[in-house]
Write a structure and sequence with these properties.
- This protein has 206 residues and is α/β, with parallel strands linked by helices.
- It has one domain (3-205): DHBP synthase.
- It has helices at 6-15, 38-44, 59-62, 70-83, 100-103, 118-127, 146-152, 161-167; strands spanning 3-4, 20-22, 29-32, 53-55, 88-93, 109-113, 130-134, 157-159, 182-186, 191-195, 204-205.
- The chain has an eleven-stranded mixed sheet with strand order 1-8-2-3-7-4-6-5-9-10-11, with helices on both faces.
- A hairpin with a 6-residue loop joins strand 2 (20-22) and strand 3.
- Helix 1 (6-15) crosses helix 6 (118-127).
- It is globular, with a radius of gyration of 16 Å.
- It starts with a strand and ends with a strand.
Length: 206
């Protein structure tokens, strides 16, 4: 069951009954419908204090999950326009649309990202935003290939390699970096770096 077509992957993710895995511009994602985020924590053995990231096909798909004043919105949208699609995760004030299963013990913020990967965005355009993290057991390095993910997580729907070949025939992909996304958080008047990843920003570190 692990290696599946894109149609099966999308259907499984939309149902909320399955975890799925697909490539991104950084490392492969482990994804689930946001209200079913508990499935990710169980599969990975992930500590509840570590939130998941909402990944979407476009910025417009993600903005309903945050709330703030107009001046802050201008800062957020400017950062998104400069780096999305891309390997930058923005941690922003969460709206009441964010399921508790996504941000664990901290309901006040949520991480958002639009990946620079046509395959990922094609999937996300059909499923809507998904709760995501790297595909690995908690505390272990991210798995770098879909074959490794299928072997480690045999019950997860993983996009098959033939599907990847067909998906990239007309739209060549940038090879994944193998590095995690850079994570920055809005503090109310400025940004701080929570995790330095692929995108390098000259910001204060938390």
């Amino acid at each position: 069951m692990a290696l599946v077509s894109m149609e099966t992957l999308v259907a499984g993710l939309r149902s909320g009954d399955y975890l799925g895995s697909f490539p991104t511009d950084t490392v492969p994602a482990l994804a689930v419908r946001p209200d079913r985020g508990a499935l990710v924590f169980a599969a990975k053995g992930r500590p509840p204090e570590k939130p998941l990231i909402l990944m979407g096909a476009t910025a417009a798909d993600l903005w309903p999950f945050v709330v703030g004043e107009e001046a802050a919105w201008e800062q957020w949208q400017s950062m998104a326009e400069g780096y999305w699609p891309g390997a930058l995760t923005l941690v922003l004030p969460a709206s009441d649309r964010v399921p508790a299963a996504v941000n664990g013990r901290d309901r006040t913020t949520v991480g958002l990202r639009v990946p620079d990967c046509a395959i990922a965005r094609t999937i996300l355009s059909q499923t809507g935003p998904l709760a995501t993290t790297s595909a690995n057991r908690s505390g272990q390095p991210p798995l770098q290939t879909l074959a490794a993910i299928a072997a480690e997580f045999p019950d997860i729907l993983t996009l098959s390699l033939p599907e990847l070949d067909r998906a990239t025939t007309d739209q060549p992909e940038i090879p994944p970096s193998g590095q995690p996304s850079t994570v920055i958080k809005w503090t109310g008047n400025t940004w701080v770096v929570l995790r330095q990843g692929k995108v390098k920003l000259a910001l204060e570190k938390s």
